[in-house]
Amino acid sequence: MEHPLRIALFGPESTGKTQLAQKLAARFGAPLVAEYAREFWDAHGVITLEDIPGIAREQWRREDEAAQAACQLLVDKRPGPKVLICDTEALTTMLWSDLLYGTCPADIRRGAEKRCRHYALYLLLDIDMPFAPDPQRCFSDPADREKCRRIWRGALARRQLPFIDIRGNWAAREFAAIAAVQKLLAGDRGGPTSRPA
Asked: How far apart are CA 170 and CA 163, in angstroms?
């Protein structure tokens, strides 16, 4: 059975992941799996370590459900989306848990390590844009932002996951992301995809 290619928007907070995810989903007619942690925060006003497993599992459930729905279109001989856009993913949940609470539940860590191999491409958004204050965001200091950038980039590089750096202003980010998805759909896995040095 053919499955849509999963594309993950990845990187520290306030780098434009949600906005770019929405644009990519619209551009490619793809399902968009929104960030459940934001929805949870809006409903509860706080996220604790005890909330991490439920948040992670619900995010994963929604993503798998969207992928399965896309596959079903193909089974029904209807055109299905070739990509699935994920506003966040398993590694992000793990990284935030480690960063905020100093630990991550072992089953969530194992799940993240397994699930990160499901993505055809990570779009790694850089911090080279102004921080936009938001009650859910906590690292506005430039040094903290740089630390987060290194953590997120290192997570991909150490695991040798396929990623491309997305930098610049909004137009440059959108252009680079669209080009990367088009290249992926064309079957070209080489080129600008970053790899660890």
From this structure: 19
